[in-house]
Each structure stands twice: as structure tokens, then as C-alpha cells.
Design brief:
Structural class: alpha/beta
Strand order of the largest sheet: 1-2-3-4-5-6-7-8
Number of helices: 11
Radius of gyration: 24 Å
Length: 537
């Protein structure tokens, strides 16, 4: 099998630009022009075949009379940001992979076939949650806590500058605060917490009372992080109350991995039939978080419901400030595991500094007009990329996650929840070899495998290195990964890559391999080009 190396790094855009320019200025003979015209007519007639942070677990739902203090827990991996002491390097510090594949020029044309896609396969999960996920824009948001109704400029900044596409409010959000958002953006989508009894903490009424707005409502997160059976039972009773009072919106159950009976809680909540979405939060930057991701992914797949998660958007005093690679790693690992809803904890919070949860996006945590930090701009870019990738990923079924490790450390690497890659993982019939090269001794990559309704395979490749990660992934080194394929008699000769700006490009893999440069914490997302369209596009 011969090898071809495609440099998809930051120099690729200039190369393709030069290629296009040369195409426009090449001197052609009349015979060559006539031949090109004949080929063009043939193509038109036949149609296009392209197709460790401190795990604070804060702001638990309030008991009657509780004004909403922080519920501070301890991370099972020892607490504290797992900052590591590794090389911060001089490599790519994150951000969008700006390279353009050099095998073919950029090709944004969609499959022009008028044939409707097949129905979702019979063995895929169905239900209210999946109906919502597959028929709506992705849920990308950040939680606003006890801030009241925002001024118009702050609403516009959240959507236009921060790049979120849904409002997310704590249990004081209805019936009043949400109206401040809707007054500025009447078509805004929104989700609100209610307490463990299904009540608003503003007026102690079920779902905030009959006067709450309903336009744009996605659903309710009912309670939060039950640690014991009594708390869990209260939330389950509230789920039934909410279903009876307002059956259409989604009902989200947010769990903590720290509950002693977490396996029983997941099993019993699924059996009730009242839960539409499984959600969880854990705010560690260390590798122990993979076990938690796998726990809730596996539970949701057994239950047949979508799964969402919170991302770390706060920085306790005395702990490392998140680098861009940390933010990217946090967001894109969830995407790779198949999570279809993403919300930063948190956007802003009144009294957050006193509770030890100051937002990482603003210089002051409890005023609408606070100046932004560099993390605001970095997260805004990530939010837009999450939306691009999620439009496809939400139409897929997650089949496997895996780590391709050049060196394994028994009991440490791969970590729990992240199995070693083997040929055939996730039903991928073509991937045969993985070779990585970078500035770190442990320069590995993670895979997320998916299938679409045509049973075509999609692959997401992530560089797990990030600045405040734990050994052996701490650092900011970019990696160059070369993937080797055996397409056999499939007829496949190229990959279709979805770029973070929403364009599709062709990657020539006809001679058996393709290479990608991936920044720390970043991803590459592609499918094998069978001629079927790229899901969501």
C-alpha cells in the first residue's frame, strides 16, 4: 500500500489559493478546451457525485426556603485542577485548524440528488429526546444564574458575540427573567432549571405559574445532582408533576457521578419513562473525566435517550486559568463521545465570586456590563464550531470511542473509559494504521466513530493534549497524524472533511493514507466518500 501525505496545516490555504489562481491563468489549447467542455457536459448530465479543576458541582437545586447557595463537592480524582508540569511548548496553541486539504481544491457543493434520505435505521434509538435533537438546531448555551432580566445590549452580546444559540437560566429564571431575553429576541430558544419539586425559586410555583412564557421553550432541567435516594425520589416525583402540567417541553435530568447510587439512579430514571435527556457535570481537566463521560454515554445509550453535558466556564481563585486548548479539549471531547447538547457552567452569576465560582468569561462575575476576558472570545469561536460540527453529529449514531496510544502505561494510559483503538472499532472497515508525530513524548490521538442513516462511517479525530491536562496530555503541542486505509473493492478514493467554518472539502486518499495537523485540543471530522451526502449538509 503506497502512502500519500496531505499537509493540512496552516500553510495549506496559501497552496490551494495558488492552485486556484494558476487554474484561472493557465494557457489552454483549443483541443484541451474542447475536451474540458465535453467532460463538463458529461458531468452535468450525470450529476455531481459529491455528497483537574475543582469539581465544585455548584448551584444544586434549592430546598424550599433555600436562597441558592453553592453545593460544593470534591472531585474523586483528588480535587484541584490537574495542571501537570509538562512542556507548554512553542507549537500550535489551539484554535481553528486553518489548513486546506491539498489533494483537491475546496469543494462546497452538496449532493444534488433529489432522492430523499432513508429513514433512521430500525436499531437506532427513538423517542421525544431524539425527535428534538434530530429536528432542531444544536443546543449550545451558557448558564446565567440569579442575574435577573438582561438589558438589550447584553442579550445581543450573548447571541451575536458569544455565539450561543439558546438561553439557559437557573431556577430563578421563570417567570420574570426570561422575559428580558424574549423582549430583545422574541424568537430565542430557551431552557430553564426548576427546583427539585418542579417549582421556580422566584415565586415557589410549579414551573413559575401559568403566566410563564412558552414561546421558544426547549425544556426544563428538573432539580440537580441528587446525591441520596431521598433527593432522587423528589426529582422523580417532580418529573411526573412537570409532565402532567406541561407535557410538550423536554425534561432534562442532570446527574453527578459522585452519587453513591449513581448506577441505580440512572437505571430507575430511565425505567420511569419521564426523562428525555440525560445530563451531567464534572469540571476536571484531568484524564479521570473520561471515565465519567463514558459512564453517562453508556447509560444514555442503554436508555435510548440523548445525552448532554456542562462545560467548565469558571475559574476558582488560586487555580490555573484555562488556556484556549483547555476550552477546546473540554468542548470537543464531549462531541467526540456523542454528546449532543453543550452548556458552559457558567456565563455569569450574581454572587459567584463569594461562592468560589467566578465566571471565566468576564472580569466581574455579577454585572451584565462587565468587560470580557480572552476566554470569552475563545469560547465564542468554539461555540460556532460546535454548532457546525453538531449539525452533522446530531444526525449520526455514536458507535465507539478509542485512544490510539503509541505508548501505554498500565493503569494510567489509556485511562478508564477510553479503550485502546483496534482495527474495526466502531464498525470502521477501512482504517488500518495510525501514526502520530509531535512535540510530546505521548503524542496520541482519540477517535470518535459514528454512522449515518446510510450506514456510512464518520470519524472524529482529536488531539487530547491541552495546557492544564494531567499526565501524559499536559502541554500545547500540535500533532501530525497519518491515517492508513485499506479500501479494498469499495471504490472509495477520498474522504469528505467538514471544516469548522461549515465548508466541505475533499481529501484525496486514493493511494492509501491521509495526514492532518491538529492543534492541541482540536478535532478533524470526516466521512468516507461513498457518494452519499454528508449528514446535516
Amino acid at each position: 500500500m503506497t502512502q500519500i501525505v496531505l499537509n493540512l496545516g496552516n500553510f495549506g490555504r496559501a497552496s490551494v489559493g495558488t492552485w486556484v489562481a494558476l487554474q484561472g491563468h493557465m494557457t489552454r489549447t483549443w483541443p484541451s478546451l474542447l475536451l474540458s467542455l465535453a467532460l463538463l457536459i458529461t458531468l452535468v448530465a450525470c450529476g455531481d457525485d459529491d455528497g483537574g479543576g475543582t469539581d465544585t458541582n455548584v448551584l444544586s437545586d434549592a430546598d424550599p426556603g433555600d436562597t441558592g447557595g453553592a453545593d460544593v463537592g470534591t472531585d474523586a480524582d483528588g480535587g484541584g485542577v490537574d495542571t501537570g508540569t509538562g512542556d507548554t511548548g512553542t507549537g500550535d496553541t489551539g484554535g481553528m485548524d486553518a489548513g486546506v486539504d491539498t489533494g483537491d481544491p475546496p469543494d462546497t457543493a452538496m449532493d444534488t440528488s433529489t432522492m430523499p434520505p432513508p429513514d433512521y435505521p430500525a436499531d437506532w434509538p427513538r423517542g421525544r429526546g431524539w425527535d428534538w435533537v434530530r429536528n432542531n438546531e444544536p443546543f449550545v448555551s451558557a448558564l446565567s444564574v440569579r442575574m435577573g432580566a438582561p438589558p438589550r445590549a447584553s442579550v445581543n452580546r450573548y447571541f451575536d458575540d458569544f455565539g450561543a444559540n439558546a438561553v439557559h437560566l437557573w431556577q430563578t429564571g421563570i417567570p420574570t427573567a426570561i422575559n428580558g431575553w424574549l423582549d430583545t429576541r422574541p424568537d430565542a430558544r430557551w431552557l430553564s432549571w426548576v427546583d427539585r419539586n418542579g417549582n421556580s425559586s422566584e415565586n415557589r410555583m410549579l414551573l413559575g405559574g401559568a403566566g410563564r412564557p412558552t414561546r421558544g421553550l426547549i425544556g426544563y432541567q428538573i432539580g440537580d445532582e441528587p446525591r441520596d435516594r431521598a433527593h432522587f425520589n423528589d426529582i422523580m416525583a417532580a418529573m411526573a408533576r412537570v409532565r402532567a402540567a406541561d407535557p410538550a417541553p423536554l425534561r432534562i435530568f442532570n446527574f453527578t457521578y459522585q452519587a453513591d447510587e449513581i448506577d441505580a439512579f440512572l437505571r430507575d430514571s430511565c425505567a420511569s419513562g419521564d426523562m428525555d435527556i440525560i445530563s451531567y457535570d464534572r469540571y476536571s481537566l484531568g484524564n479521570s473525566t473520561f471515565e465519567t463521560m463514558a459512564l453517562f454515554r453508556d447509560a444514555a445509550q442503554r436508555c435510548g435517550v440523548p445525552y448532554w453535558r456542562y462545560l467548565r466556564g469558571y475559574n476558582p481563585a488560586g487555580e490555573a486559568v484555562q488556556a484556549e486548548s483547555d476550552l477546546r479539549w473540554d468542548a470537543f471531547t464531549g462531541l467526540l463521545f456523542g454528546y449532543t447538547g453543550h452548556s458552559w457552567f457558567l456565563y455569569n452569576v450574581r454572587g459567584g465570586a463569594a461562592e468560589g465560582i467566578p465566571t471565566t468569561f468576564f472580569g466581574s462575575t455579577d454585572t451584565w456590563g462587565a468587560a470580557t476576558t480572552p476566554r470569552f472570545t475563545q469560547a465564542a469561536a468554539i461555540n460556532r464550531e460546535l454548532i457546525v460540527y453538531s449539525r452533522a453529529q446530531m444526525q449520526l449514531r455514536s458507535t465507539a470511542v478509542a485512544l490510539a496510544a503509541e505508548r501505554e502505561i498500565p493503569g494510567t494510559w489509556p485511562p478508564e473509559g477510553l479503550p485502546s483503538w483496534r482495527m474495526g472499532a466502531g464498525g470502521d472497515r477501512f482504517l488500518r494504521s495510525v501514526d502520530t508525530d509531535g512535540g510530546s513524548f505521548f503524542q496520541d490521538v482519540m477517535f470518535g466513530f459514528f454512522e449515518d442513516r446510510y450506514r456510512d462511517t464518520y470519524v472524529m479525530v482529536l488531539n487530547p493534549t491541552h495546557e492544564n491536562g494531567s499526565f501524559p496530555t499536559e502541554g500545547n503541542e500540535a500533532t501530525r497524524v497519518t491515517l492508513g486505509f485499506d479500501f479494498g473493492a469499495s471504490g472509495i478514493t477520498r474522504l469528505r472533511r467538514l471544516r469548522p467554518d461549515g465548508t466541505l472539502v475533499n481529501v484525496d486518499a486514493s493511494s492509501g493514507s491521509a495526514s492532518f495537523n491538529i492543534a492541541a485540543g482540536d478535532v478533524v471530522f470526516f466521512k468516507y466518500d461513498t457518494g452519499n451526502p454528508f449528514a446535516g449538509y
